[in-house]
Design goal:
Layout lengths: L12 E5 H5 L7 E4 L1 H8 L4 H18 L5 E2 L2 E5 L8 H12 L20 E2 L8 E5 L5 E6 L10 H9 L5 H21 L7 E3 L1
Parallel strand pairs: 1-3, 4-5
Antiparallel strand pairs: 1-2, 4-6, 6-7, 7-8
Helix pairs in contact: 3-4, 3-6, 5-6
């Protein structure tokens, strides 16, 4: 049971979660998240999961500078509706890193540590996702442009064959290898590419 080796090469991010500190779950509330955590949450590794992790990582770093981002103290707005396209998958990964949750999220303890309703959809935004700090109101908008890292031209036909039940092991291995290679390029070759994640 193992992930592709490149997962461990993707930059991680350390966040401070005051609820985790309060409940004794993490010393000082410091928790380190890596790409493998996003994969465990989503149950798969794909360009959307990778892009969501990268977008969140970049937005949180830009919004907090040298400070450790405060997980659970960031509101997140999506331009798209929750049921549109890949919004739900993206929101799950964004929520993992920010702690923001929708109506079913943690209601807090006596008004403290509330996570509920920090994640909203269908908002009027100039980009894909807006991250807003609750402590000072500063915000940043991020737009993901996955077309900047195109898939191998062989992937569409390989995908169709797999979905049609092709059980050729060589075809299966090639499909999986090419699929994860695009994820690798997104997360390693283009991690700091300003064309892939546009911040404003």
């Amino acid at each position: 049971m193992g992930f592709p080796a490149f997962f461990a090469q993707v930059p991680s991010i350390v966040l401070r979660d005051r609820l985790a500190d309060f409940l004794g779950a993490a010393a000082g509330g410091l928790i380190e998240y890596g790409y493998a955590d996003a994969v465990r949450l989503a149950g798969h590794s794909c360009p959307t999961v990778a892009g969501s992790y990268l977008l969140s990582h970049r937005a949180l770093r830009a919004l907090h500078g040298e400070e450790t981002p405060l997980r659970g103290e960031i509101a997140v707005d999506f331009r798209e509706a929750a049921e549109a396209g890949v919004s739900g998958v993206m929101a799950a990964v964004v929520g993992l890193l920010t702690g923001a949750a929708g109506a079913g999220g943690f209601k807090g303890l006596a008004g403290h540590f509330v996570r509920r309703d920090l994640l909203r959809f269908g908002q009027d935004l100039p980009g894909d996702i807006r991250f807003r700090r609750l402590d000072n109101g500063q915000s940043i908008t991020a737009t993901l442009q996955l077309a900047q890292v195109p898939a191998d031209p062989r992937l569409p036909s390989l995908l169709r064959r797999q979905l049609a039940g092709d059980d050729d092991p060589d075809s299966r291995r090639l499909f999986a290898s090419l699929w994860q290679d695009r994820v690798r390029r997104i997360l390693l070759d283009h991690f700091d590419d300003p064309r892939l994640v546009v911040l404003a």
